[in-house]
Write a structure and sequence with these properties.
The complex is a heterodimer.
Chain A (H helix, E strand, L loop, with lengths): L1 E12 L2 E13 L4 E5 L6 H8 L7 E6 L2 E2 L5 H11 E4 L11 H12 L3 H14 L15 H14 L4 E5 L7 H16 L3 E5 L3 H5 L3 E6 L2 E7 L10
Parallel strand pairs in A: 3-8, 3-9, 6-7, 7-8
Antiparallel strand pairs in A: 1-2, 1-4, 4-5, 9-10
Helix pairs in contact in A: 3-4, 3-5, 4-5, 5-6
Chain B lengths: L2 H5 L2 H13 L1 H35 L7 E6 L17 E2 L2 H8 L3 E10 L8 E4 L2 E4 L2 E4 L3 H4 L3 E2 L8 H5 L4 E5 H7 L10 E4 L2 E10 L12 E4 H8 L4 E2 L1 E6 L5 H15 L10 E5 H44 L1 H9 L4 H38 L14 H28 L2 H6 L2
Parallel strand pairs in B: 6-11, 8-10
Antiparallel strand pairs in B: 1-13, 1-14, 2-12, 3-6, 3-13, 4-5, 4-9, 7-10, 9-10
The chains are: A alpha/beta, B alpha+beta.
């Protein structure tokens, strides 16, 4: 599903250059649930941003579902994001003046889906995350866990190949974190490929594979015994 | 998405309307700027037009390029005559003037009693009487100064002149004072200086400057001549030039002509007096035109200020919405779509504000019009704004709205989605 080879990325700050990713080789099969771990500055967010086409690597190969991702202009990147990827952010990033339903429907708008159909699909995904009753509520009327579930529904709505989650539980308490992880596990069980960036070991243990990043290289890449989140909720 | 298809796509507008409707404070503040601009523009140019119309109404009963000429006495000795000779205009001057000054359209010699000299004669009807000014006139006079005659009556005609008929046109006040209320004055007789005159018409008095009043009595010029034994003497000429003629130049030519006829020095500035209505009207209408121009400039400047205000607020709101726009782009909005959304928001707000401003401006103008209809002495009539002005203003607004929208739109897409999302 995801194939990257010799990925390099450095940031220029003034005269000095900061080499963040120093040659990453990494493959993800369809249906995997991968945790990317590492201390801050290890390059895990940069890696996720490049995978999410929000940022461009300096050198290296990136293939997504067999499509080489290269020479992206902003327009192409936007279309690929819309088509291939779903994003879940630490700070939810819901649009505050849109209701839960409208937020979930937004990626469908950019896919050119008609309004009525959009609402139906959005409501379907909202009910899958258990928030059908909250469809008309604004983000400010939702709890943190609910917001993240809306964000997950939004990421799922465009039926992406890969779900990218950047610290999805970073702003949540333990119980709520496990609820969200339970949801992510369920989505993964349906066959969806998911990448989760986290620095919390317990969250990482709930994935099927953990990739440790350190100083811009992969330090350790191992499959783990998945801990189900449901019993801990 | 194709940019033209986007414009007519219901989805686009729903998204834009959603974004505008959900940010009420921002929308209202933005709208007020342009609304105020277009309101000022409509009200000002309407008011200027009303003033223009008002001036025109004030002058509607007088030909706008007319002038009066009368004779005084010489101030320069000339051709064997000594200084201070009184000049007398003659009826024969009419033909000469017409020949020498082709720009003259109408010329009406006039005599009057009770206006410049002599006392108003006693006019009697049965047991009622009063003193009224008497004018000796030609039919041409009505071509220069419109006289509205009430139903059933007429003004002096050529036959009256030729036959020196003893007929008269009386004023509204004369009728009210001399005739019983229910009596039709037309065909009735009144006595002017003990001579009976038949009333052929009642003129409606229209205020229009000059020395005439609502009590004036007009009689044929020839009858006047006979009655008061004025011979060829004429007190003054009322002259109308053709519409395209330069009234000031015509006035000069007429005076030069008169000086030649009456053997007055060409340099004598005081032998003939004149009053040029056309020149004065020209000045007033120039003033009204200036007002229209001023209102146009002020109005458009205000609109521009308003649109810049919209640009400012959108720019701030783009900064406020950096994260939202980042999210939209992460979810698959292309830079083109984001740009289009910001521009369309700008255009939509501008147009909406413009239309509301036009409506409010029109209401205010209608209110002013309603409030001033009964004020006769206030030069203000029918304040309207030409449709072309409105359409022009709307076009300017949409154009400027697009232009000013480009700045925040460019700002919005210049921020990378990753930076937008990182911003907390």
């Amino acid at each position: 599903m995801i194939k990257i080879k010799e990925l390099h990325k450095s940031y220029k700050t003034g005269k000095s250059s900061l080499h963040v990713l120093k040659g990453i080789d990494f493959e993800v099969e369809p249906g995997e649930l991968v945790a990317i771990m590492g201390s801050s500055g290890s390059g895990k967010s940069t890696l996720l941003n490049i995978l999410g086409m929000l940022d461009v690597a300096d050198t290296g190969i990136y293939e997504l579902d067999g499509v080489p991702i290269e020479n992206l202009d902003e327009k192409k990147a936007a279309q690929y994001r819309n088509q291939f990827l779903g994003f879940v952010f630490q700070s939810f990033n819901l649009i505050n003046y849109k209701t839960a339903l409208e937020n979930v429907a937004l990626p469908l708008y950019y896919q050119g889906v008609k309004r009525k159909e959009r609402r139906e699909i959005a409501l379907d995904y909202l009910s899958r995350v258990g928030l059908a009753d909250w469809a008309t509520h604004l983000p400010s009327e939702l709890s943190g866990g609910q917001k993240q579930r809306v964000a997950i529904a939004r990421a799922m709505a465009s039926n992406p190949k890969v779900l990218l989650a950047d610290e999805p539980t970073g702003a949540l308490d333990t119980t709520t974190s496990y609820e969200v992880m339970d949801l992510i596990q369920k989505i993964n069980d349906e066959g969806r490929t998911i990448l989760v960036v986290t620095h919390e070991p317990d969250i990482a243990q709930m994935c099927k594979r953990i990739v440790h990043l350190k100083d811009g290289t992969i330090e350790k890449d191992s499959r783990v015994e998945q801990v189900k989140a449901l019993p801990h909720v | 998405m194709n940019s033209f298809k986007v414009l007519f796509d219901q989805e686009t507008w729903q998204e834009i309307f959603g974004s505008i409707a959900k940010n009420k404070t921002r929308t209202i503040i933005t709208v007020i700027g342009v609304l105020w601009g277009i309101f000022i523009y409509v009200t000002l140019s309407g008011a200027a037009k009303g003033l223009d119309n008002g001036f025109e109404r004030e002058f509607e009963n007088v030909a706008m390029n007319s002038l009066f000429v009368w004779a005084q006495s010489t101030s320069i000795p000339y051709d064997g005559f000594k200084i201070g000779r009184s000049i007398q205009l003659k009826i024969q001057d009419v033909e000469t003037l017409k020949k020498q000054v082709p720009e003259i359209q109408y010329i009406a010699p006039r005599n009057a009693l009770g206006v410049f000299g002599g006392s108003a004669p006693l006019v009697v009807k049965g047991s009622r009487s009063g003193n009224y000014n008497i004018y000796g006139d030609f039919p041409e006079y009505t071509k220069i100064a419109t006289k509205k005659i009430f139903d059933g009556g007429r003004f002096i005609n050529t036959a009256d002149i030729q036959q020196e008929r003893k007929v008269c046109v009386i004023g509204e006040r004369t009728r009210d004072e001399l005739f019983e209320k229910d009596v039709n004055p037309i065909g009735g007789y009144i006595r002017i200086n003990d001579i009976y005159f038949q009333v052929i018409g009642v003129h409606k008095y229209v205020e229009g400057g000059g020395f005439e009043s609502d009590g004036d009595i007009f009689i044929p010029f020839t009858t006047y001549r006979r009655l008061y034994n004025t011979g060829d003497r004429v007190q003054w000429f009322t002259i109308a030039a053709y519409d395209d003629a330069d009234v000031v130049a015509v006035e000069k030519q007429i005076k030069q002509s008169l000086k030649r006829i009456h053997r007055v020095s060409p340099k004598d500035e005081r032998a003939f007096g004149s009053f040029n209505l056309g020149e004065i009207f020209g000045r007033i209408s120039g003033f009204a035109k200036g007002m229209t121009f001023l209102s146009l400039v002020v109005g458009i400047a205000t609109i521009i200020a308003g649109v810049i205000g919209i640009g400012n607020i959108l720019l701030i709101s783009v900064k406020e919405r950096t994260k939202e726009l980042g999210v939209r782009r992460a979810l698959g909005a292309t830079p083109g779509e984001v740009r289009m959304q910001i521009i369309l928001e700008s255009v939509f707000l501008t147009t909406l504000a413009g239309i509301i401003g036009i409506v409010i401006g029109a209401l205010v103008l209608a209110g002013i019009n309603w409030g001033t209809t009964d004020l006769q002495d206030f030069p203000y009539t029918n304040p309207t704004v030409p449709v072309s002005f409105i359409l022009g203003a709307l076009f300017i607004m949409v154009f400027l709205g697009t232009l000013i929208g480009l700045i925040p739109a460019q700002r919005a897409v210049s921020i990378k989605p990753i930076d937008a999302l990182r911003e907390e």
